[in-house]
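Researcher: Here's the sequence for the chain we discussed earlier.
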Amino acid sequence: MANLELIKKIREITGAGMVDVKDALVEAQDDETKAIEILRKKGTQKAAKKAGREAHEGVLAMATADKKLAIVGLNCETDFVARNEDFVAAVSNFATKLLELGEEAFKAWAEDEIKNNLIVKIGENLQLNQASIIEGETIGSYLHSNKKVAGIVVLSGGNEEIAKDIAMHIAAFAPEYLQPEDVPADVLAKEKEIYTEQLKAEGKPAEIIEKIMTGKVEKFYSEVCLIKQAFVKDDKISIEKLLADNNAKIEKFSYYSL
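Model: Thanks. This is the structure I predict for it:
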């Protein structure tokens, strides 16, 4: 009979289940090193079998240090696992590791960690969805309570409180562009085409359509451009006005969703 302390030790090292550890120890004739090796190999086999299964759930995690912010997203198969404390802690550890290693080295480490350790422990197909490091003087971040949606912004000027408020706004409104000038010409042309057809169907004459189009385009900008959106905490002002009032400028922003 395998020693209970040894079983406990191997479970802590590998994250494998009790039955798997017992079976590995029997196969290894109670040799700890060999048992761990057996579990690793079985874990890789399990990972290969699970690799084809869809992983649409997951969580995001962030870590900060020295004017840098790391964000990691890890997908799993079920919401049950996404709410599992061990899984959430693992993703948080990944974010810290990303800051430590840098993006390129982290991705190699994460691939190995997922395949050889985490899938064995969690028991589902897991996929790295996101791994980015953002740098800047003033970084604002917001992670929704469900850990599936996040916003990040880098400001010049302003302060951390304003940056955090704008990051929360980004998480809530999912802007696609920073400003109207960033909207691709073909995207704007398609929107105008749609509006034109709608107005023609309503029987509007060409000269009226032209006048209405200006308002339609402005409304479109207010929906997809961050600086034109109404501020989530005060819809009487735009993000553009909020920035002007606080002597701040957005250098870059990102919206994340799993």
